[in-house]
Amino acid sequence: MSQQQGSKRVSSGVIAAISAAVVLVGGGVGWLTWNSNQDTNPTPSERLVPGNPPQVGNEQTTQIYWLQDTGTNFKLVPQSVQVQANRNQPNQFLTAAFQRLLEGPTQGSSGSSTIPQGTKVLGVDVQGDTVRVNLSGEFTSGGGSTSMQGRIGQIVYTATSLNPNAKVYIEVDGKQLDVLGGEGLELEQPLTRQNFKENFQL
């Protein structure tokens, strides 16, 4: 009788040990499987939605404005360009547009620029239908009245590429620009596309 009980205890102990080993091995395999899935499965943002091609970067199209010589005067002409910015973040988007504008026309562009080389965009602030553009001091240097009016037009039209009816304030080194150049071109701000057409002759 005691031998039978002993054998039962041994059998129970062996079974318990084997069960524990199975649990440990199973748990280890499960952990390894889960961990490898974490490394190989794409995150939700990386998963491709059927029918939608993958997007590379964050390029979006905007318009910047150049001056085109018509033979008797100048006119503002748009050029569509790609910028690395989000249209839903207008400050960032317009800053990228102005940086591209201030680089000047590239080969194949349909116009020229009267914005002085070296001009930098120091900041763009969009609040509702108002756009404030802060430029470096180089913006005010050189050129006659046509050049001055042309560069104002380039800024106003590029600043309103997201909203053609927006009101634009131009600042230089953080101060509102009321008079431009040695010839004293007066600016009544805010500027809009409409009042530019009415008050400036290119």
TrEMBL record:
<dbReference type="InterPro" id="IPR019606">
    <property type="entry name" value="GerMN"/>
</dbReference>
<dbReference type="Pfam" id="PF10646">
    <property type="entry name" value="Germane"/>
</dbReference>
<feature type="transmembrane region" description="Helical">
    <location>
        <begin position="12"/>
        <end position="34"/>
    </location>
</feature>
<protein>
    <submittedName>
        <fullName>Spore germination protein</fullName>
    </submittedName>
</protein>
<feature type="domain" description="GerMN">
    <location>
        <begin position="94"/>
        <end position="181"/>
    </location>
</feature>
<keyword id="KW-1133">Transmembrane helix</keyword>
<keyword id="KW-0472">Membrane</keyword>
<keyword id="KW-0812">Transmembrane</keyword>
